[in-house]
Hints:
Number of domains: 3
Helix content: 55-70%
Shape: elongated
Number of helices: 17
Strand order of the largest sheet: 2-4-5-7-6
CATH topology of the largest domain: Arp2/3 complex 21 kDa subunit ARPC3
Amino acid sequence: MDAHTATPGVAAALRPPRWLLPALAVAIGYYVAARLGMAFTLHPHPISTLWPPNALLLAALLLTAGRDWWWLLLAALPGHIAAELQSGVPTVMVLGWYASNCSEALIGASLLRVFVRGVPRLDSLRDTGILLLTAALAAPVFSTFIDAALVRLIGWGTSTYWDLVSTRLFSNALAALMVVPLILAWAAWLAAGPAKMRGARYAEAAALFSGLLAVCLLAFAMPHSDAHTAPAVFYAPLPFLLWAAVRFGPLGVVSALPAMAVATIWGTVHGLGPFTTETPQDTAREMQLFLITASVPLLLLAVALAERSRIERESRSQLTHLSRVAMLGELSGGIAHELNQPLTAILANAQAAQHFLANKPGERAILSEILQDIILADKRAGDVIDRLRAMFKRGETRTEALDPNRLVRDVMSLAHGDMTTRGIEVVPRLAASLPEIRGDRIQLQQVILNLIVNAADAMSMCAPNDRVLTVHTLATKGRVHINVIDRGPGFTVASEILFEAFYTTKPQGLGLGLSISKSIVSAHGGRLRAVTRKGGGAAFLITLPALARRP
């Protein structure tokens, strides 16, 4: 074995086990979360107002396969021991709390896996509702009974069993509500590949969270001299939370709610804010109930908006695909004509080859030329079929750098048979050295093809010499334009009406082609306009942002 063949084996041996990095992340995250939970304790009340380690462990289990849960639970043990032993708790009680913390994570993750396949989605009301019922309600309830029983069995502290249950339940439920959706949302965002945002979007997010933090500090972390707190104080963060829900969806809300919770708890722990008028136990419960009742409806609102947006995207994608299929159905005669030509050439050349083999086996040059013609004709037919397959296929939107002229040529090639059958002359006027555009190839081809077919339909009653369709491309500063011009009768209604859904002048038309085309162009950051030409006919202009030229 030489050095080259040994290298992959050595690299594999040096590569750390797949469980090592997640285990380290869980151990460190658990320790930090436990220390944070201890900092959220209202002294002399011994129980934290928000205990995040259990929720962090639950989220880690939800993000991994069930076969890997055991080593994640083991990874939390060093972090748990390191955090708890610093507080002077007996070792037996430390191990008992570790068992009860793991029980909450296991109960929540197991119940969720029964009802939800895979990781719960925060753009689904069903998944989110099940997440809240299991992770933020059922798991804290069952594990709290276990935890309180262990505390009384070991004999740590003086609280009664039911006092332990009531105090720990709200602490664990609030932590699950704050931590689990936060981790799941950010994990999904990172797994999907962070979308590029414009600078204005980052500025808006910064303004939102700066304003929310400032309002929360003023409302919940400032001295309150009056015994009675005005209700308006509790509503102060609401505009920012609604802003996060509407503009940034579940990811924005699950990031904003913990910020509000931390500011509120920090103020209360330091004797500030409106939650400082009762005993520590009552203060903690009032604050926990406030944060829970404020968080649940806002999270569900953000999820409902995200689900509606997702359903609209899926419906629009399906409608776009069906419209494309219907349009290709209209072109079936021309496509058959386009395929028939190379197939006929293949047949003729194959028959000629048979003839030469039977009568002139020595004419190798002529036979080679015939075979080359067969190859070219086959490639031409294959190209048509490949374009058809791509147009018929339904899939996720794929953006890439595209050559506008190549888009136009591919569409003209696909529509060539139909244009020939209709007796329409297509005149391409394609500018040289156009900058590239970014978009989905199939969707943009659908737009151009729809405009070409509409132009052909508009010229169906024109004299044969007037059936001329011009496709013109050009570039201006930062923009690429594709202009489809016909010599038909034009249109008499306002151009905006043409792009309304279900408006059509065709007897068998659905009135969706132009509406879908405009939505596709808008989604690509461009514009689709229509004008009636003075000399007769209509022009449809696609304008799209150009990519910067590569050096």
